C-alpha cells in the first residue's frame, strides 16, 4: 500500500488537553503544525474522566445533601433517578462527538490527521487511519508525544473473558446496576463507587494494598473507610483477586486469595492507567517499549535537537509525572517555550496538587509524611480535625475531615499537605501556593485565617509544628 508523504514544522501525536494546547499555541505562533489523534480530540478528561465523572459526583452529592435535611432543616424524601445524570453527561460530552473540538483545533491553525501515530524515525511520524491508509509526516523542527494513557487492566485469570467495565463504560452507563464490584481503591474506583452507591447500587470495593488511596496519608484512608462504610459500601483491603468468573444472568464472581467470594451484577476495574510505548514507536528513539514512561529531562525532552535534526518532546501521562489534566497543561507550556526557544523555568514537580472527589474530598499537594521521611528530611507534622477547628461541625451534617501539614524544619517550609473534608480540593489552594512558593513557616503563622471556615484549620495545624 502506498504511503503518502507530508512535512510540517511540528508533529503533535495525541490531542488530549496538553497536546491540544501545545499544538494550538505552536500554530498560533506561526509554525506549520500537524496534530494527530486516533480517539477524541480533547482526550480522556472531557469525555470519560474529569468532566463527566464530576457531573456524576455532583449529582450524587445532591442526593446526599437531600438525605441530610431530616433532623437538621426539616424533612425530605429523596428518590434517586439516573436519567437526568445520563442526559447531563451526554450533553457535556456532545454524545461523545469531538466535532466541535476538531473545529476549535483547526481554527487555531492546526492541520488535523485522524489516525494512530507512531514514530518511524527520529524525525518522522507515520499515521495510519481506520482504513489502513498511511501518511508519513516528516518534522522539520519538533515532534511532541502526548499520547496519554489507557485503563490498566491486571492479568487476573478469567477477567479478559468477561464484560467488565473500566471508567469509560461506567461513564456511559444508562442504568445503575443493582450491585457493583470495584477492583481498585484509588480515586477512580472510590469516586464512581460512591456515586453508584448513592443512586442505590450495592457496592463492594476490593483493594490489594493495605489502605484506600495508598499514595495518600494513612489518615485519608481511615477517614474514607469510616465514611464509605457508613454510606453502606463494603470495603476489603489487603485483598488480592485471584480469579474472576462471569455467567450471564448470574453476574460476576471474584475469588480473593484470602478466601473471599464476592458476587455482583457488574464489575468495575479501576486499577490505574498505563501508556503503550510500543504503540507510539518508542524503539525509534532507543527507549524500552516496556518502560512505564518516556524518559524526559527537565525541559520535557526525550531527545534534544542535535545537528540540525528535530527534537522530540513529551508531555502528559506518558511522561510518568502524574496522570492529571493540570500536569499536562503545565507541561504543555514548558514544551511550547522549549520549541519556540523562549526559555523560562524548567518543569518542577515539588507541588503537584491532586484531588479525589469523594465525599469528603481528599486534596493533597507535595510530599506525604512517609515520602518526606524517606527523603531524609527533618520532618515535623501538624494534624487538626475539622470538627475541632470549626468548633461544632458534626459528622451528621457531613463535615468529616482533617488538615495535615508536613514541614521540613531544616528549610523551614511546608513540603506537603492534605486537606480532607468538604471542599477539600478548594481548601487545598492555600497549601498549593505555600508549598509551590516555599513560603517560610514563620510567614504562614502570621497569616489571619477567616473564621468559621474549613481553611482556618490550616492555621491550627501550623501551630502544632514546632
What can you see in these coordinates?
Helix 1 packs parallel to helix 10 (325-339), helix 3 (50-67) packs antiparallel against helix 4 and helix 3 crosses helix 7 (187-198). The protein folds into three domains: 3-42 and 98-149 and 275-339, FAD/NAD(P)-binding domain, CATH 3.50.50.60; 159-271, 3-Layer(bba) Sandwich (FAD/NAD(P)-binding domain), CATH 3.50.50.60; 353-464, 2-Layer Sandwich (Enolase-like, domain 1), CATH 3.30.390. It starts with a strand and ends with a helix. Strand 16 (301-303) and strand 17 form a beta hairpin. The protein is 31% helix and 26% strand. The model is unreliable at 392-396 (pLDDT under 50). The chain is globular, with a radius of gyration of 24 Å. The relative contact order is 0.12. Strands 1, 2, 3, 4, 5, 6, 16 and 17 form an eight-stranded mixed sheet that branches. A five-stranded antiparallel sheet has the order 18-19-22-21-20, with helices on both faces. Strands 10-9-8-14 form a four-stranded parallel sheet. It contains 15 helices and 22 strands. With 466 residues, it is α/β, with parallel strands linked by helices.
